[in-house]
Design a protein that fits this description.
Blueprint lengths: L7 H10 L4 H19 L2 E4 L1 H16 L10 E5 L26 H8 L3 E6 L11 E2 L3 E2 L1 E2 L2 E5 L5 H9 L4 E6 L5 H7 L2 E4 L26 E6 L2 H11 L27 E4 L10 H16 L3 E3 L8 H16 L5 H12 L8 H9 L3 H21 L5 E4 L19 E4 L2 E4 L5 H7 L5 E8 L5 E7 L6 H14 L7
Helix pairs in contact: 2-3, 5-6, 7-14, 9-11, 9-12, 9-13, 10-11
């Protein structure tokens, strides 16, 4: 049997039945990587010897009667996670030789669940791009079109899944870093509710792996099916055992509904600050039509929706206030001078980025207060709706663009150019208030590229968008291997 593109859930069943061994699955994945990854470049740090040893251990454990959620399943891990004995660089050349001594908490959870870790997947420099390339490991290509990006910053993980290099991967998301690569590569991803999954050890090189509460950023699962997302999220979810984990366990509420016809879904395909490309709009409408055909209640307008323009501006300011926090003082002062020169009437996202970079603590608190008002608005919306269906970015995967000045880059939306980072407005819709969001494939563009959409759900009700994703997968189909 061909195991390469089988779901993790299917592989667990096959392993339990004795139809295949973990050693066989691991050798199969390694053979495929050695054959195909030269042109995709998803696996930047292979760990094949230890993977083979872990696979043998998993097979031995199974013969003893052990059964764990991922026992013997082959997975990959984003390069930014610490794995003892392997380099953690975040793509930064000055750290190419940095090797942590301890696994990140999520790597420990993978191992405790019995997973076999094949190695690490590629990322952009400092995780700060919508593409995945760096001086150490080179460029990760989209398996559907090698001239295009796989996305970022979890682009290596998405490309690995699309190419059949393991059944699952773990990534992270601050600016769509799980969702955009999944959309570009035609796979599934889930951005958990902020704080649901412990992040310790997903930390820049040489920084201490402390159990800190991050603003905006989360760690989360990637897979080739919706049910596999839930399987991996159940392994990842839970507070850090060094802090809240001493007193609390996590029990996520069940999905609000089990039948597609019971869901109430708000559909958005227009943003006040950025147009949606025709291919992505078609993907949103394809899923919306499937919801209607399945009996769901679908609306396209509601007075309960928080202001999208203010949401994007708030998100931009909060995001970029963190991105320059460790800049040298002289660079920071140059940014402050540029920000002070802005017209008070300039309310563009470019201006929001610049103002965010020099946000004072006082102004950050005010922005955070506005965020809390948005969170309350979402609570009111989710009293009437179960999920929001919307784009992730305005276009399918775009051609590689390695212009070192990211602020000079442009994104082409149906023949018109816009500032590169403006495409983050849809990712920020869920990130700014900390909401869960599940990415599902929604078919192919006229040019043959994958198009994904996101299903945003209520805070800490992650099982609701995950269940909706599963039901939609049954109706419209899901992952398909690149041609």
């Amino acid at each position: 049997m061909e195991w390469t593109f089988q779901s993790a859930e299917g592989l667990v069943a096959a392993l339990r039945a004795g139809d295949v061994t973990s050693a066989e699955l691991t050798d199969d994945a390694i053979t495929r990587i050695e054959r195909d990854d030269r042109v995709i470049n998803a696996i930047c740090v292979p760990d094949f010897d230890r993977a083979r040893a872990a696979a043998r251990d998993a097979d031995t454990a199974r013969t003893r009667g052990e059964d764990r959620p991922l026992l013997g399943v082959v997975v990959t891990v984003k390069e930014s996670y610490n794995i003892a004995g392997l380099p953690t660089t975040w793509g930064m050349p000055q750290y190419r030789d940095y090797v942590p001594a301890e696994d990140a908490v999520q790597v420990s959870r993978l191992r405790a669940a019995g997973a076999v870790v094949l190695g690490k997947t590629n990322v952009p420099l400092g995780l700060q791009d919508i593409q995945s390339f760096n001086e150490i490991y080179g460029t990760t290509n989209n398996p559907w079109d090698h001239a295009r990006t796989s996305g970022g910053s979890s682009g290596g993980s998405a490309a690995a899944l699309a190419a059949g290099f393991g059944a699952l991967s773990v990534g992270s998301d601050l600016a769509g870093s799980l969702r955009t690569p999944a959309h570009f590569c035609g796979v599934y991803a889930h951005k958990p509710t902020l704080g649901l999954a412990a992040n310790r050890g997903m930390v820049p090189p040489t920084m201490p792996a402390l159990p800190v509460d991050l603003d905006l950023a989360v760690v989360g699962p990637m897979a080739r099916t919706a049910r596999d997302l839930t399987l991996l999220l159940d392994v990842m979810a839970g507070p850090d055992p060094l802090t809240l984990g001493k007193a609390h366990d996590v029990t996520l509420p069940p999905a609000r509904h089990e039948r597609l016809g019971d869901f109430r879904v708000l559909v958005l395909d227009e943003h006040p600050l950025l147009p949606t490309g025709s291919a992505v709009r078609a993907g949103v409408n394809r899923v919306a039509d499937a919801l209607v055909e399945g009996g769901a209640r679908v609306e396209r307008h509601t007075a309960l929706l928080p202001d999208l323009a203010e949401a994007a501006t708030l998100y931009t300011r909060l995001l970029f206030s963190g991105s320059v926090a460790r800049f040298p003082v002289d660079a920071y002062e140059r940014l402050r001078t540029r920000a002070d020169a802005l017209s008070a009437h300039d309310q563009s996202l470019d201006a929001a980025r610049l103002r965010g970079m020099v946000l004072s603590h006082r102004d950050w608190i005010e922005a955070n207060n506005r965020r809390e008002l948005h969170r309350h608005g979402w609570r009111q919306l989710f009293a009437e709706f179960d999920a929001v269906l919307c784009p992730i970015t305005p276009t399918p995967a775009f051609p590689h663009d390695h212009n070192p000045d990211l602020l000079e880059r442009r994104i082409d939306i149906d023949g018109v150019e816009y500032p590169y980072f403006d495409q983050l407005v849809w990712a920020g819709l869920a990130t700014m208030p900390g909401l869960p969001a599940t990415v599902i494939p929604a078919g192919l563009s006229p040019g043959g590229l994958p198009v994904g959409v996101q299903l945003i759900g209520p805070m800490f009700e992650d099982r609701t968008p995950l269940r909706l994703a599963e039901l939609l997968e049954q109706r419209i189909g899901g992952f398909r291997a690149p041609r």
